[in-house]
């Protein structure tokens, strides 16, 4: 019966989605182009280098080396192997869904148990600093000081999620394993690196080609999700369904003394982060309320990112539900941290900016903004060239 209901629901959703495309073709086309632009301007060029280098570092044994060194830190704090430090760092630097991609890869290599992978994926999918500072703070709010508040709330909240999720699955897990030796040993780390490299006997050219093809395949999947959810979000809005669903959010916001005008932007942000953040910036509410709303949807990741993670995890035995719980916790923690950090990280910085004549931004902010605009300009050509290289590699292998 449950399976039949699922089939009915999925079929009904597909029919309604198709009907929406037929009813609102212009809006669907514009939303599709918007999603495509976001993918090939920002997502593809920003994630591709991290995906390729992570695949190569796994193959060369570097991740194993890092895992041995950071085992004494990651095991007590987050109850995951030391290799989780690599996933955590790459996830924050490159943005979602890099953490899920690398976690799934380590699970396939046997570096993580099922429960360890579920703990790790719950707190290693974060927004990258470029998106927070350049796109949201500067691009949407034109407020440089807001970037520090959002980033601190986001990354500290993510760490708190990891500390909470360390208790996930303790009853299912074995109490102790002798092969786990949480002690720092540079010699043992080098030995593990060498053994991993010998075990993966692919030559450099083969390893690099595999990394490129695997990264492109994942990024194409991500692009599809971005476009589909951009269209879905637009169809819900133009068909007035967003307003009906947002009514529930309006009641919740009124109950916790937040502006009801944030209901529709928050709902849109739960579907797709970029559109929701932009809508929040246009509501005119106080900056604290806006920061809380943006922090929540950044922590929640949006259903678009969650669908990407679910697709990546579906190729392994790692369950999606712990990740979803982590997203709810992250959104809650980040929103609370916005209130706590609002005065020291935002008001103080804003006061300094007002005192400065002329008002200038820091070099780091200027650099991030420059990189963001550079990617918007050169991202599409880079995406096309990379896809052509991937086709050439794949064609050469087929001919062999």
UniProtKB/TrEMBL annotation:
Record-annotated Nucleoside transporter/FeoB GTPase Gate domain positions: 43-139
Membrane-traversing stretches: 46-70, 130-156, 207-232, 244-267, 279-300, 320-342, 378-398
Keywords: Membrane, Transmembrane, Transmembrane helix
One protein family per Pfam: Gate
Keyword Transcription regulation: no
NCBIfam families to which the protein is assigned, alphabetical: spore_ylbJ
The protein's name: Sporulation integral membrane protein YlbJ
Gene name linked to the record: ylbJ
């Amino acid at each position: 019966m449950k399976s039949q209901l699922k089939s009915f629901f999925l079929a009904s959703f597909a029919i309604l989605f198709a009907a929406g495309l037929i009813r609102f073709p212009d809006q669907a086309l514009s939303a599709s182009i918007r999603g495509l632009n976001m993918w090939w301007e920002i997502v593809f060029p920003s994630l591709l280098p991290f995906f390729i280098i992570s695949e190569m570092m796994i193959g060369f044994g570097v991740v194993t080396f890092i895992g041995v060194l950071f085992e004494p830190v990651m095991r007590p704090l987050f109850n995951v192997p030391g290799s989780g430090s690599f996933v955590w760092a790459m996830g924050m630097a490159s943005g979602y869904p890099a953490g899920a991609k690398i976690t799934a890869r380590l699970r396939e290599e046997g570096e993580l148990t099922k429960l360890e992978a579920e703990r790790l994926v719950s707190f290693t999918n974060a927004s990258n600093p470029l998106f927070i500072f350049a796109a949201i703070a500067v691009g949407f709010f034109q407020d440089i000081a807001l970037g520090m508040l959002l980033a601190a709330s986001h990354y500290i909240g993510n760490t708190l999620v990891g500390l909470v999720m360390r208790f996930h699955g303790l009853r299912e897990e074995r109490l102790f394993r002798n092969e786990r030796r949480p002690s720092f040993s540079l010699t043992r780390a080098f030995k593990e690196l060498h053994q991993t490299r010998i075990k993966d006997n692919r030559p450099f050219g083969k390893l690099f080609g595999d990394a490129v093809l695997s990264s492109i395949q994942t990024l194409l999947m991500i692009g599809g999700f971005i476009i589909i959810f951009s269209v879905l979000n637009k169809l819900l809005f133009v068909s007035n369904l967003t307003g009906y669903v947002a009514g529930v959010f309006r009641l919740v916001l009124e109950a916790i003394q937040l502006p009801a005008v944030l209901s529709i932007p928050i709902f849109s942000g739960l579907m797709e982060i970029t559109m929701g953040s932009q809508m929040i910036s246009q509501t005119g509410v106080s900056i604290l309320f806006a920061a809380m709303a943006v922090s929540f949807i950044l922590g929640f990741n949006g259903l678009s990112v969650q669908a990407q993670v679910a697709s990546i995890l579906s190729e392994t035995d790692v369950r999606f539900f712990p990740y979803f719980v982590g997203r709810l916790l992250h959104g809650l923690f980040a929103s609370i941290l916005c209130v706590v950090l609002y005065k020291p990280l935002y008001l103080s910085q804003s006061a300094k900016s007002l005192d400065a004549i002329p008002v200038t931004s820091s070099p780091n902010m200027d650099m991030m903004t420059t990189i963001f605009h550079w990617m918007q300009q050169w991202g599409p050509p880079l995406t096309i060239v990379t896809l052509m290289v991937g086709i050439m590699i794949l064609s050469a292998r087929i001919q062999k």
